[in-house]
Design a protein that fits this description.
By secondary structure, the protein is mostly beta strands. The chain contains one helix and 21 strands. It has two domains: 130 residues; 92 residues.
């Protein structure tokens, strides 16, 4: 008796299939996921998160959140200084009593604004402004009037500490677009966020990366890349931070806008 030939799979792919979404785990090897980790701002899946400074088990996106503004010379009688903070011009601060007292008054005005954690004067020439965790900060000072006016120089810094990647989870509600699902909704403030701190995860890359590329993490938005927390292979002119290769490395590359695999090994 003869039987018809049996058809079936004759070849096998020994590599993992490409994920359907950023934030999906690459394989079932050793993984360490910390959850719940509470979000302090909206965090889309597949982005790199930062530790909330001064709090346990809370995460945020990376930001440029500290600026020191330095005067070239002391403030004098008749000076009026306008601070533009996060794009909004504040009320002018007129010189009063002394240079130190006027700097303190400027710092107090800034500290009273929304999303500002602190603004501190050194009493001589510099005011250091720190945003609340989960917010960026930008500031420019302009002084008019008086016998002479200082110019002001901004020096930006940040307190971003890489925590891990926010994972995609199957039971999280999807956003809907005109053609159906537009991807997983973000984690909202107060949501538990599963964050991979060790293991391999798919992420969408901003530019072409290979397994030999360094890993950079965006913390300053630009017109072409407005979402902070993304990954790329260069600093993009200082807008992305280098993560040490002892913590994160690429194991599968991709072209811009596609999914690559990060191997995370947080200490």
């Amino acid at each position: 008796m003869s039987f018809p030939p049996v058809s079936g799979q004759t070849s096998y792919n020994y590599l993992m299939n490409v994920a359907a979404s950023a934030g999906q785990i690459y394989d079932i090897g050793f993984n360490n996921v910390l959850s719940p980790v509470s979000a302090v701002e909206n965090i889309p899946v597949g982005l790199g998160t930062a530790k909330v400074i001064g709090a346990d088990m809370q995460v945020r996106l990376p930001h440029q959140d500290i600026v020191a503004v330095q005067a070239s010379t002391s403030l004098v009688s008749g000076n009026s200084t306008i601070v533009t903070l996060n794009g909004i011009a504040l009320s002018p601060v007129v010189y009063a009593t002394s240079n130190a007292a006027t700097l303190t008054a400027i710092a107090a005005l800034i500290a009273a604004q929304p999303f500002i954690a602190s603004a501190v004067s050194n009493g001589t020439d510099t005011i250091t402004i720190t945003a609340q965790q989960g917010f960026p900060v930008s500031a420019t000072f302009a002084t008019t009037g008086g016998a002479g006016q200082p110019t002001w120089t901004d020096t930006y810094s940040n307190d971003n500490v890489f925590y891990g990647v926010a994972l995609y989870i199957q039971n999280k509600q999807n956003l809907l677009g005109p053609q159906g699902s537009a991807g997983a909704s973000p984690y909202y403030p107060g949501d538990p966020v599963p964050v991979m701190t060790r293991g391999r995860v798919w992420v969408t890359v901003e530019n072409t990366v290979t397994s030999d590329s360094p890993v950079y993490w965006r913390y300053i938005p630009t017109l072409s890349n407005p979402q902070v927390g993304g990954f790329r292979s260069d600093s993009d002119g200082g807008n992305a931070l280098l993560i040490p290769s002892t913590q994160v490395r690429w194991i599968i590359g991709a072209t811009a806008g596609n999914l690559a695999v990060l191997d995370i090994n947080q200490p």
